[in-house]
Structures are given as C-alpha cells and as structure tokens.
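At this stage, I put together a protein sequence along with its fold in token form, as given directly below:
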Amino acid sequence: MYNIVTLGGTTLTRLVPLCEDLNIVSPSTLDDFKKYVNNGYAVILNGLTNDSLSEFMPYIDYIEQNNIHVFVDAMYESNIMTFHLTKKLDTTSTLLISNRLATEHIYFDNVITFPYFELQSYILWKNLGITPLTYEQHLSTEKNSFVCLNGVNKPGRRFAYKYLSKNNIIDDCLFTFHNRGSEDNAPLIEEYPTRTLANDTENNDDGVTWDNTYNPNWFLNTHFNYVTESTCDNETSHGYAIHRYDNCFFPTEKTFKPIFNCHPFICLSDVDYHKNLKEIQGYELYDEVFSYTFDRIEASEHRWLVQLEQVEYLHKHGLDMDLIKEKLLYNQNLFLDEKRHKDNLLNLLNQIDKHTN
C-alpha cells in the first residue's frame, strides 16, 4: 500500500484510478497528522498553494523540528515560483515536478520528475468517455488548414498570432486566443483581441476540465495541430522563479490531444522539444511531413519564425497522412497503453517510498 498524507492537496489524487494501492488522506488536525506520520505515511505539501507555508505553519513547524522528509508537489508547473514557496524548508525535502529535464534545485535535497500531464489527460479523457479519433475517420473527412488553440496570453503565442495575422492566415485556420490571465490588461487585449470558435467549449475556469475538453471536429477537419505549449522561450527561467533552469521539457495536455486523436502536430515550445518528445517520452516524430531543423535554434524568435514559415507552407499545401500512418497509430497506441501509465505511476510511488523510509 502506498500511503500519503497531504497538506493542501496533491495532484496525485487525480491518478488514483491507475493504482488501487494508492491511499491519499488529508489531516483534520495536527494530532491527526502526527498519527499518519508515525504510521509511515509519506508527507506531500502542495507547492502551488499561495502562502502554503503560512496556512500550514503548525504542521511545517512539526515537520522541521522532527526533520520529517517532505515532498513538494509542483507537478502543474515547470518551475517553483517565489509566490509558491516563500522560504526554503528546514528539513529533508524532495521536489516533484513535470519538467523532465530538472535534475536539481537549490531549495530541495532531491528532485523527482514525472510525466504528470500525460497520465492526467489519459485518465480524464477515459473518465469523460471521450473516444479517440481513428486514422480511418481522418481519411473520410475533408481537411483544410490547421488548428491552433490558445488559452493563456503568452509571448510565443502572441508571436504566432501576429505572424498568422500579418500573413492573412488567421481567418483560414481554426485559431483561438482566449486571453486567460490578461482579462484586466486592456492594451494587451486590444493588440491581441480574444478569438473564439463558434463551436468552442465552455470555459468553466477550473484549470483542468476546460483545458482537456475539445471538439473532435477541430482535429477531423484540419491537416494538423499547431500546438503552442505552456513553456516557450524557456519561460521557467523568467519571472519570479526561485531557481533558473538552463533548459526545459514540459509537455502538457496540449501535445497529448493530437497524439490521442491520431492527428499530426508540430509544437511551438522550447529548444529540442521534439527531440525530447522522442528520446524521453518515446513518441515518434513525423519527419516525413515536418522538418524539425528549427528544434535546435536557440534564439526564440528565430526558432518561431522558421517554424511558422513551415506552418504557412503546410497551411497552403496540406500534408499526406499516408506517409506517417504507422507513426500516427504507434503514438496513439503508446498514449493509450494503460500498463505504461501504471508503470510510470508505480515508479514514482516507489521513489517516494524509498525517500520516506
């Protein structure tokens, strides 16, 4: 049995369907918490709750006084920001994070990386009863241009918005720009007006369900998905980060949507993103229809420009899915492999157990 007591919650709760031996509890009192700790429960602190240390200070004091190993769950971020963790924990600590290239962190004794979004998306789509599109369905539909879905206003996405507008592409493709995070920034919204689709999904603002829902016709009616990932221009090294990573590989549900739906895709993201998708996650690249030469370009805007020129070409000419049929099916089946997801989760839980005991 893998027993976990959490302060402020943990994203691992969403993965319970993959492991019947995973038991996660929340203490109602400090005495309650002490009992769980004394019974060998691993302690996970939600590292993404604002002022989490203040909210749970009596617990933190007990943890620090007794040097209890604590795991900090930051798997929804590519880095820990100062508003997430206001001070270094004075106890043995391990960071749980989805940036697969993170190997160390100045605030933590250990770092464990985990493909969280891959497992979460698999479980959510399965629980929601969403059926993946098949290769045959794609062949039976008429396709036009590409789909590009954007929620939060970010630099790379603004660059794509501007390029597609300037080159008269934006009205021909399926392009959304919801301006999440910029609702009170009138000048920014004026420069990059919100764009939605007639059949857009309803935004319930829960940060999980809306991000993982979609209209299957967006994929069926387009040649490919131009994915604008959460990290681009290595945003883990910007803003109020506690620690600067030299590189980043942080795949989210945005990349897994086209994989799940047997749909070709290319990603606006960090340097070597596609290379890492193959070498770390195990997915095949579609080099028969895409040129990934941009992947190694370190200058962000140069990398984006070279990529968008290719997107523009494919927008005009389309692509031949027959050339990548086997890879599309391989990637879809890899994502749908529940045993693989369970093994990844068990590997994480065993690492947590190892550090706890």
